[in-house]
Amino acid sequence: MRTPSVVAILGSTLTGEFEDVKLMNELLTKKNKKTGWNTPTHVDAASRGFIAPFLYPDLEWYFRLPLVKSINVSGHKYGLVYPCVGWVVWRRKDDLPEELVFHINYLGSDQPTFTLNFSKGSSQIIAQFYQFIRLGTEGYKNIMENCRENARILREGIEKTSQFNIVSKDAGVPLVAFSLKDSSQHSV
Ligand SMILES: *Cc1c(COP(=O)(O)O)cnc(C)c1O
């Protein structure tokens, strides 16, 4: 059986580290060529979708890579909107399988919908729209740079205590993940 899709995670939940989507795309291209498959990639950019464009604009992780067919990003994380708004973008209309779209004849006209529930408040979408207009590219960039700086200061403070191992990476989601050193590693 062939693999239906390979998912790359941009911003691991545990450490904020990002997977190398470009390398994955290259390896998968080779694999597809060898096997005759046509396996695409989905990028789970829940955390980093709103970070990478501002802090790492040259990083290749989205539709620039030919096998990336869809990307999800959480508006309620670094999109700076309260829960629950998330986005998913497909490269082309036909990359979203037709059988996942429900067609509902509502008030006399066809309404295609791809959601799990029907009636739903729109406040988060309005809030996301507001943030886009209010902050713009520059605003998001300033906030993300500030987050990165805060993470750096926090990491340095935690390192100074000598009690913890830092497990997050410098490049990635601006967060600090750390574990307690076992007693043999403690400096006295
Ligand atoms: C947060 C997160 C999710 C879940 O996203 P929601 O928008 O909260 O549903 C999925 N994958 C990763 C990598 C995440 O960080």
From TrEMBL:
- Cofactor(s) listed in the protein's UniProt record: pyridoxal 5'-phosphate
Which residues are annotated as modified residue N6-(pyridoxal phosphate)lysine in the UniProt record? Answer: 77
InterPro entries assigned to the protein according to its UniProt record, in alphabetical order? Glutamate_decarboxylase (IPR010107), PyrdxlP-dep_de-COase (IPR002129), PyrdxlP-dep_Trfase (IPR015424), PyrdxlP-dep_Trfase_major (IPR015421)
What UniProt keywords apply to this chain's record, in alphabetical order?
A: Calmodulin-binding, Lyase, Pyridoxal phosphate
Keyword Cytoplasm annotated:
no
One example GO MF annotation:
pyridoxal phosphate binding
GO BP field: L-glutamate catabolic process
Q: Which Gene3D superfamilies match?
A: Type I PLP-dependent aspartate aminotransferase-like (Major domain)
The protein's superkingdom reads Eukaryota
The terms describing its cellular component in GO are:
cytosol
Q: Could you say which EC number(s) this protein's record lists?
A: 4.1.1.15
Family membership noted in the UniProt record: Belongs to the group II decarboxylase family.
What is this protein's name? glutamate decarboxylase
Species name? Arachis hypogaea (Peanut)
